[in-house]
Amino acid sequence: MDVIKTENLRKIYFLEEEKIEALKGINITVKKGEMVALMGPSGSGKSTLLHLLGGIDVPTKGKVFINDFDIFSLDDKKLSVFRNKHIGFVFQFHYLLPEFTVLENVMLPVQIYNKRDAKEKAEKILRLLGLEHRLNHKPTQISGGEQQRTAIARAVVNEPDIILADEPTGNLDSENAHNVMNIFKEMNKKDNVSIVIATHDPEIAEYCDRIFYLKDGQIQDIIEKT
Ligand SMILES: Nc1ncnc2c1ncn2[C@@H]1O[C@H](COP(=O)(O)OP(=O)(O)O)[C@@H](O)[C@H]1O
Ligand SMILES: [Mg+2]
After folding, report:
1. Segment 94-105 mean pLDDT
2. Does 14 reside within a domain?
3. Looking at residue 167, which CATH number applies to its domain?
């Protein structure tokens, strides 16, 4: 089954006089339980594509289907509920809230639903990611690798079907980068979560089942790992 499917996805940014065609008609699918990499030079459209797949930006043309559902047929409010339920986003700069503790940062996406078990859920995932000794620390009091693992915990605490990660290892040293990839791989294998990772690092792409190469807003090549 295709968890993600795009149909002739186009994105044009208008900057004063300039018109930037960031995506020029993307047709891709990601299967249930698949882990794929988006590669390509800076400016090729990787982040734009991830944002559209996750419904955090709207296409100029074309469609995104998540579990066969046309996500841009929803109004803003319903789309944000859908997103919170089905999609976990991990960014290069983790965007943790500095005034909140590690535990509180991870509880937030659960609390949006007023669920009572936010604390238990957040503690459980933080323990799985080896952060049980950091629950009451603020983001500035922990290492870069720990910050990124906290951001991953926040992205997956609602048990999404899909994880979208934009250069999630871009700010990490090699050891922490591989730790993060092993965490993704384990979630992928154990829970059958579909994962899309934008990266320009071939070593990171090695963890994935397929690699989509983007160039100038188009899919240039698809490599399947054998
Ligand atoms: N918010 C924006 N406004 C205008 N242009 C943008 C915006 N975001 C991205 N772009 C442009 O769209 C193209 C694709 O960018 P992006 O998706 O960030 O590529 P990548 O993630 O592969 O580096 C680039 O030319 C970039 O400058
Ligand atoms: Mg980018």
Report:
1. 94
2. no
3. 3.40.50.300
Confidence of residue 20 (pLDDT cuts 50, 70, 90): very high
How many domains would you assign to the chain?
1
Give the residue, by CA position, lying nearest to ligand 1 atom 26: 43
Integer Cα distance of 35 and 21 in angstroms = 27
What local confidence, expressed as pLDDT, does residue 128 receive? Answer: 87
- Smallest-distance ligand from the CA of 38: 1
- Show the 3-state SS of 1-31: CEEEEEEEEEEEEEECCEEEEEEEEECCEEE
Contact 150, 142 (CB under 8 A): yes
Output the residue whose Cα is nearest ligand 1's atom 24: 43
Q: Which ligand is nearest to the CA of 49?
A: 1
* Domain annotation covers residue 181: yes
CA distance 220 to 226: 19
Average pLDDT of 127-139? 94
Q: Which atom in ligand 1 lies closest to the alpha carbon of residue 15?
A: 4
Boundaries of domain holding 39:
32-60+72-224
The answer to whether residue 6 is domain-embedded is no
Ligand 1 surroundings by CB, under 6 angstroms: 13, 15, 20, 22, 40, 42-48
Q: Is 39 helix (H, G, I), strand (E, B) or coil?
A: strand
| Structural domain includes residue 23 | no
Question: Which pLDDT tens digit goes with each residue over 40-68?
Answer: 999 999 999 999 999 999 999 999 999 99
Closest-lying ligand 1 atom to the alpha carbon of residue 45: 17
Q: What is the mean pLDDT of the chain?
A: 94
Ligand nearest to the CA of 56: 1
Ligand 1, residues 15, 20, 21: which to mutate, most atoms within 8 A of Cβ? 20
